[in-house]
Amino acid sequence: MLRPRSIRTRYTMMATALSLLFLVTIGVSVDLATRYRVEANAFEDTKAVASQWSAAVRNGSVPHTLPAMTRVNLIQIVDADGHVLQASKQAWNRPPISTVHPPSNDRFQNITSCEPGRGCVLLMAIRVTPAANSPVVYAGLPEPSILATCWLELGLFTCIVLILAFVAWITWTLVGRTLRPVETIRARMSEITGSDLSLRVPLPPGRDEIAMLARTANQTLDRLEIAVKQQRRFASDASHELRTPIAGLRVALEDAIAHPEDVDAQETLRTALSTTNRLEAIVSDLLVLARLRASDPEPPEPIDLGALAKEASTGRIDTVPVHVNATGDVRVSGCRSQLMRVMDNLLNNARRHADSSVEVTVGSENGQAVVSVTDDGAGIDPHDRERVFARFTRLDDARRRDPGGTGLGLAISREIVEAHGGTLKVEDSPRGARFVMRLGAMTDSGRPGNRL
Q1: Domains identified in the chain, total number
Q2: Lowest mean per-residue pLDDT among 2-6, 142-146, 377-381, 384-388
Q3: Is-annotated flag, keyword Transferase (predicted)?
Q4: What is the pLDDT of residue 450?
Q5: CATH code, domain with 410
Q6: Upper half-sphere CA count for residue 410 (Cβ side, 13 Å)
Q7: Measuring CA to CA, which residue among 393, 384, 452 is closest to residue 417?
Q8: DSSP category for residue 201
């Protein structure tokens, strides 16, 4: 069985089918009830007339021609032999309208008598007395046209067809009007391509499901546009950052092959190794960024930020010393390995720019865990404080102090912190640069507190 593809068609057919079932049930009920009521009324009238003349027969006061006072105009008094004794004017010139002779134990009988060429008659037959030779009074009327013809059924059928047509039209119109915004959304979505994500679907009025669908679609397109822009920018920056060391490595190797007598082979190998190390670092950081966006988050666990800072500050004794000052038990809920990477990145950045020491403070403030990493170096200009978190951004001082850096450490750190519902910023400091990380601190119940 073929199923219509259009929702509008399916709903119209469904509404029409249900209406047809309901209307047919109602129509049959109305038809049967009407026929029963008309027939019952007719028999009531014939019974009243037949009873009246039955009493008159018993009293011996029956005229030769029986007057018809109501619509019951077929009246006959027939003896036991089937001879018409008295009759109404309309029933004199016809044989007995019925041959049914009620028995003595059932003197009243409703009869429908049909004769060729005369139609059918609804009548009441009453046996006057229980005696064997008792006459019978017949009182009848022609079958009403509503019972004798199909006009009732034809009228009901016409009403059903008209109502079905109205229901189908109403359903088709309302469903079409309801789905019109969906068609508009579909047409607009078909215009959106990967090269142009600026289009948005029109928002229908109201707050129904279709309006919510349109808002969700626009929100999804917003996120998709941001993600595509980030991906394109990231791909452009990554290709630029990778192209430079690869080009330098190629030039050095080609020069060593073309002029082996003029090139120091050991120096060329050391340069190639250094360039390879930088490429490896860039690729490693790129993989970290890709995992942060693509992978499912790890199950959170309680983390003591003071202990984490002390752990990250140990292990490297040949660098600038790090002093950790942890106040109280400051815990957050998150991924330990990711927050450890943030702490390592911040400490490595601080060591790289510090003159003599790095200070780490861990505390809580307004329901938040606050970690600040401060060095005593030259600091960061206010107009560069946001730029340092951009991917592949390296200030002149950073290039001078660490030529092999990738420029991705702080970008990775901010993405990790934001994924944990926190913030990472550069704030004012009397000397040097001060990086401040804020996360929602865990309460006594074990739940994260307020987050920015």
Answers
A1: 3
A2: 2-6
A3: yes
A4: 46
A5: 3.30.565.10
A6: 23
A7: 452
A8: P
